[in-house]
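Quick check before the chapter quiz. The format below is the same one you will see on the exam, so make sure you can read both the input and the output lines.
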Amino acid sequence: MNEAKAPRPITLLLCALGGEGGGVLTEWLIEAARHAGYAAQSTSIPGVAQRTGATTYYVEVFSVPLAHLGGRRPVFGLAPAAGTLDALVSSELLETVRQIGHGMASGERTCVITSTGRALTTAERMVPGDGRADAARLLEVVRRFSREHHLLDMGALARAGGTVISSVMLGAIAGSGLLPFGRDSFEAAIRGPAATPGAAAAASLRGFAAAFEAVRAPQAQAAYVRQLLSPAEADPPALDAALAQRFPPAVHELLRLGHGRVRDYQDEAYARLYADRLARVLQAEQAADPGAQQGGHATTREMARWLALWMAFDDIVRVAALKASASRAGRVRAEVKAGADDLLRVYDHFKPGVPEFAALLPPALARRLTAWDQARQRRGRRPWALPLKVGSHSVLGMAALRTLASLKGLRRRGSRFAEEQALIEQWLGAVEAGAREDWTLGHELALCGRLIKGYGSTNERGKANLLHITEHLARHPGRTPQERAAAVAAARTAALADEAGAALDAALRQHGAPPRPVREQPIRWMRRPASTT
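Here is the expected output.
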């Protein structure tokens, strides 16, 4: 076992109403873990008498097989801690939201598996009219406070299989892939020691299979769509030995991907800059958490992910390189099911504007070009853009894309490259300072890299939000590092909640930070069309 990876138990909170077999579900989970050679423990927590009674069961499964522990035994917890769950599994939608309201689910960590069915509470039944809670709002809470979520009508699946809902919940857990063992271990737990399952076990297996497929099928479909839509880049080579020695094994996988992405984006020197920046974060994290006991190098792992994505920002050079890649052409042919003898024409539409061209120009020229376009907009004109239709199936079209993709050298001399590097250094400095002061603060600031996404106005808004958070919440005078870490986390969650930024502004006011500056927007006057009457 590698100590640097800090293996820990996988934590699940199971919520079942009275008579739904929550205790049996827990026994199945423990037996499935033991069948696969993993250590596990469960505890039950009686709940308030609600509907026909609700009881929660807390299960921990150690992530490393017993055979690999060298005779050692893991120490398990007896009760769940808010925000530390890997999975929240519930047979009733309002019960799921009630547990989320207790802080049990985390948007960065928790997989929520819930039934969309409802068992009305006493308060809902007492209302003379329709007293039911709004299901749409309940589902929105689930989506907001989950890393991933699986929604299915567990009651309907149980009735169709002639079984109880506990077997459906087990199938959904198995289908999610959360636990490190296969379907056969779960089914062995349901069958028990009997060679041939009885009627009850057969019904449970039917419910298990229905839920397993209900969860697994959308996952497979989503993976296929991601494969079709993802940029066609070859997997980066194995991590260089010298680079691997600089970083702990827990960081190696993301470091390999990030280093390869940045090197493919620009050059070897840019990849070395990525590694040097990441090393600064590692040193700061080790200063606050020397033995990696608190976070297992989680801050450096997050920075390896988000730093690579920001450093490889999208511009017209990168877009052209992706569209001109040979693997992309093969993927398009496979998507439209074109045969080897079929003729295929592919047209790519571009509409680069002044920001895209100015990005590759030196700062002085970029400012003049941007000022010219802004002056046009102040006169009521639309932003200048150049619509293009490029046939990438043709020699001239592919030559144009390859020529544009070869302009990597201009990128370093361009105005946007310098601007992006300055912003990255601001964020990097905030993460370093926060990590040296308190590990949690540094980790929350590293997670703010999630705000940088998309392109155009979405990308600009994300960068502005990130820098506003780091400037006014990370260094808030008179507040402890723990308070600032909580404020940064709340602001980041609010910034991801809506594009308009209303939730972020409310979070900033709540934590004593100034609101975001109002950005000017041009007013465009439109001529009224002449009347035809």
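If your answer matched, good. Residues 199-229 form the longest helix (31 residues).
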